[in-house]
Each structure stands twice: as C-alpha cells, then as structure tokens.
Amino acid sequence: MAFAQLAHVPAPEPGSGPWSANLRRDKGELVLAGHALSDLADAGTPVYLVDEEDMKARARAWVDAMGDGDVYYAGKSFLTPAVASWMLEAGLCIDTASEGELRIALAGGVPGNRIGLHGNSKSDATLRLALEAGIGRIVVDSPGEVDQIAALAAELGTVAPCFVRVTTGVHAGGHEFIATAHEDQKFGLSLATGAAMDVVAAITASPHLEFLGLHSHIGSQILDAEGFAAAARAVMAFAGELSSRGISVPEVDLGGGYGIQYTGLDPKPLSEKDMIAGIRSAIEASCQEAGIPAPRLSIEPGRSISGPAGMTLYRVGATKDVMTDDGVRRYVSVDGGMSDNVRPALYGADYTALLGRDSEAELVPTRVVGMHCESGDIVVKDVALPADVTRGDLILVAATGAYGRSMASNYNMVRRPGVLAVSDTGTAWLVKPETWEDVLGLFPDL
Ligand SMILES: Cc1ncc(COP(=O)(O)O)c(C=O)c1O
Ligand SMILES: N[C@@H](CCCC[NH3+])C(=O)O
C-alpha cells in the first residue's frame, strides 16, 4: 500500500498557526530569534525552547485587553523565578496551586499581595507560608477549609483574604479530565446544592477571614467567550442572591482555560480583547438584571501565555515504515517523548512538527514517537514530514510551552530536559537540564 492513502497534513510554516512570533526560516533552516536550531541543539536534546519576547508579548496582550482588573498568570502551566519576574514586569499577578509554585513566585520577587493560592487539598504549612507572605487571595475550595484557614489566620494575628471557588455546572473545553466546572468532580463548591452559599456565609461570619469574591474555572482549551459568559451569568445570579442577604461580591475571578492553536487544523482562538469584551458584556447584563453593581474582574490565563511561546527540539533516532489498514505510516522516533510531554498520552492531545532543515523530498504520513516503553508514547500523532528525515535530524514540535516541562517526569529514568529562553540578545536557562548526577543522586545506595 502507498503512503498517500493516509491523511497527512504538513505543519504550517513559521509565522502562522501554532508557531511563536520569532521563529523563521533562513536558507531553509529554522531559526528562533536569530539562533539557528542546529546551534541551539548544541545545548543537548531534547530541549524546551521559549521565545522570550513572544511570551512577554502574550502576557502584555492580556493586561492591555483587561484594562481595569487583574490578570493572574497560571503558574501551573510553566513557572520559574525568571518567568514570575517577567509576568510581574508585564503587569500580571501570579496564580499558584501548590506550595512549590508559591515558593517559586516569591523567589521571583513577586510580592505576596500579587499572588493567589489555589488547591483542593491545601496543607497547614502551605497556608501558613501564604499568610506569612501576605498572600493576595486564597481560593477556598471545600467547607473544611473555612475553619482551617481561620485558625491559622488567628494564630498569625492576621485576616485571611478569601475567594470562594464555585461550580456553575458549565462545562467547556477539551478533554473530560481538563473540564472542571461540572458537578461530579473534586474542585469547588456547588451553587446548586447550596454548598457555596454556606461557605460564603461562614467566611463572612469569621473575624479572621475576609470575603473578597467568587471564583469560577470552567475548563481548558476553550476557544470562544460563550462558556465564560455562561459561567459569568451563573456566578452573577449567585452574587445577586448574596446581595439580597446583605453580602456584596467585590470581585469575580473567571479562572483560566483560554485556548491556543496546537496544529494548523485548530481554529484560531478569539483575541484577548474580544474574549474580555464578551465576558464583560455578559457580566454587565447579568448585573443589571440582578440590580447589583458590576464587580471587578480577574482572570487566570496560563496556556495562552506560555503555550505558543514554547517549543520542543528533539533529535531523530530510528525511523521505520509500518503497514496500517489504510496505508504505510512512517514512524520517526525521537530522543524524548511522554516524559517531556505527557499531554498526547494523557488527553490524546494533538501537536504538529517541522523538520529543522530544508528538504525537497516528498511529504509522507508520519507519526513522531518517543523513546519510552509505551505504545501510547506519541509526540505528534499525524503530520506530513519529508521522506528523507533520518537519524540525527532535528524536529521542532510547536506549542509545548504549557504543561510540558511542568508535567514532565523521569519515566524510564530519563533526565528531564532544560528550558532555554531564546531572544535576540542571547540564550539563558530558565530551568537547567537534569544531569545524570541529579537523577542517580536520588538513590542513597549509589
Ligand atoms: C483554577 C485554574 N486557573 C487557571 C488555570 C489555567 O488554565 P489554562 O492554562 O488552560 O489557561 C487552571 C488550569 O486549568 C485552573 O485550574
Ligand atoms: N494540565 C492540563 C490543564 C490543567 C487542568 C486542570 N486545571 C493540560 O495540559 O491541558
């Protein structure tokens, strides 16, 4: 059977689709912010590359679109002290979801009052650190947290600033595991059952807690404003109910989940400006209906800032042609895989890739796969790559900046790759590549 019978779509060229703004071709070779991929690969492969100016510009675009209101960069998507300081400089706050993320934001020089803390299972130690740092907001996620946080605030002689995370029943975005506002899951407090109402009432009754607002996060990889608008309507209806009980809601945080293009086939997401305009008009209409003033708005984009700015550079190892029911597929194995990007295995996520060098060869249906002992270890499920791809070639995978390094593992005892920031002025490690000493040093008997 022939190659051509399988669906195969080439990656878009630089300057379009999922690629970051400063990727180009120069005499056929891919070049990021003036640095040839073949030079960047001297740092070792696989390596995550971050187009520094692109990431900063994406952060600024959200701040500009937001105007009056706060943009919290979701650190879970990719956080380092330097990244935290870039975000601060661009006018953002930082959303953290663990003690580690909180520590990194603080290490990056972010003042406590510009940090938010999430988590469905916050430890006393994490909450104590947050309160001692003068955290801007703690997002309460379960009824038991009210007493837990109040006791710690009392012990520290402070008042804890609290948001309440509600589940609106709105479910938007991609995979089931990344949709988080339907009822039967672990996050947030239900509007429907009254759990959210009880927690808000308990917070307002405590002298050690201050109720600052409501939080909603409806899912991930959402490309238009409708899901956020529906969530905003549900949250504002609840704010109306609270208002009739004498409780005002100064701020509403609609969370993250703003989608990106991973392949050339993905639709373009709404611009930051159109997304915010859509959300604000839903909030204003609901507030008019409920007869309450519009609250301050905040959001928590992660992927839409870090995702498209990041790429992964792999080196090709073995290649083979495999007969499928529909034709021949070329398997191109690279020197990383599910340990540096678990999203294809976890969510069936699609990515796309380009060969680093020029080639005149015909394009053939290709699957880029990792080096791990799992058949689900896929890097790019379907892409058209030149037929002459061979051992030693470089392959660049687009839009891996979010949830790539932050979800990386040492599966099969690999060393987790470093993250290199690349700009016109040079390169710098944001995260160092792990060494054999780092990995083997974990074992006391070695
Ligand atoms: C509460 C909360 N905020 C923000 C985000 C960031 O989401 P994304 O990176 O899709 O924008 C997430 C992750 O899904 C989240 O759970
Ligand atoms: N890790 C997820 C997003 C977070 C899901 C829940 N907050 C992804 O890669 O898409």
TrEMBL record:
<keyword id="KW-0457">Lysine biosynthesis</keyword>
<feature type="binding site">
    <location>
        <position position="347"/>
    </location>
    <ligand>
        <name>substrate</name>
    </ligand>
</feature>
<dbReference type="InterPro" id="IPR002986">
    <property type="entry name" value="DAP_deCOOHase_LysA"/>
</dbReference>
<dbReference type="InterPro" id="IPR009006">
    <property type="entry name" value="Ala_racemase/Decarboxylase_C"/>
</dbReference>
<dbReference type="InterPro" id="IPR029066">
    <property type="entry name" value="PLP-binding_barrel"/>
</dbReference>
<dbReference type="InterPro" id="IPR022653">
    <property type="entry name" value="De-COase2_pyr-phos_BS"/>
</dbReference>
<comment type="subunit">
    <text>Homodimer.</text>
</comment>
<dbReference type="GO" id="GO:0008836">
    <property type="term" value="F:diaminopimelate decarboxylase activity"/>
</dbReference>
<comment type="function">
    <text>Specifically catalyzes the decarboxylation of meso-diaminopimelate (meso-DAP) to L-lysine.</text>
</comment>
<comment type="similarity">
    <text>Belongs to the Orn/Lys/Arg decarboxylase class-II family. LysA subfamily.</text>
</comment>
<feature type="binding site">
    <location>
        <position position="374"/>
    </location>
    <ligand>
        <name>substrate</name>
    </ligand>
</feature>
<keyword id="KW-0663">Pyridoxal phosphate</keyword>
<keyword id="KW-0456">Lyase</keyword>
<feature type="binding site">
    <location>
        <position position="403"/>
    </location>
    <ligand>
        <name>substrate</name>
    </ligand>
</feature>
<dbReference type="InterPro" id="IPR022657">
    <property type="entry name" value="De-COase2_CS"/>
</dbReference>
<feature type="binding site">
    <location>
        <position position="303"/>
    </location>
    <ligand>
        <name>substrate</name>
    </ligand>
</feature>
<feature type="binding site">
    <location>
        <position position="257"/>
    </location>
    <ligand>
        <name>pyridoxal 5'-phosphate</name>
    </ligand>
</feature>
<keyword id="KW-0210">Decarboxylase</keyword>
<dbReference type="InterPro" id="IPR000183">
    <property type="entry name" value="Orn/DAP/Arg_de-COase"/>
</dbReference>
<feature type="region of interest" description="Disordered">
    <location>
        <begin position="1"/>
        <end position="21"/>
    </location>
</feature>
<protein>
    <recommendedName>
        <fullName>Diaminopimelate decarboxylase</fullName>
        <ecNumber>4.1.1.20</ecNumber>
    </recommendedName>
</protein>
<feature type="binding site">
    <location>
        <position position="343"/>
    </location>
    <ligand>
        <name>substrate</name>
    </ligand>
</feature>
<feature type="modified residue" description="N6-(pyridoxal phosphate)lysine">
    <location>
        <position position="76"/>
    </location>
</feature>
<keyword id="KW-0028">Amino-acid biosynthesis</keyword>
<dbReference type="InterPro" id="IPR022644">
    <property type="entry name" value="De-COase2_N"/>
</dbReference>
<feature type="binding site">
    <location>
        <begin position="300"/>
        <end position="303"/>
    </location>
    <ligand>
        <name>pyridoxal 5'-phosphate</name>
    </ligand>
</feature>
<comment type="pathway">
    <text>Amino-acid biosynthesis; L-lysine biosynthesis via DAP pathway; L-lysine from DL-2,6-diaminopimelate: step 1/1.</text>
</comment>
<dbReference type="Pfam" id="PF02784">
    <property type="entry name" value="Orn_Arg_deC_N"/>
</dbReference>
<feature type="domain" description="Orn/DAP/Arg decarboxylase 2 N-terminal">
    <location>
        <begin position="54"/>
        <end position="306"/>
    </location>
</feature>
<feature type="binding site">
    <location>
        <position position="403"/>
    </location>
    <ligand>
        <name>pyridoxal 5'-phosphate</name>
    </ligand>
</feature>
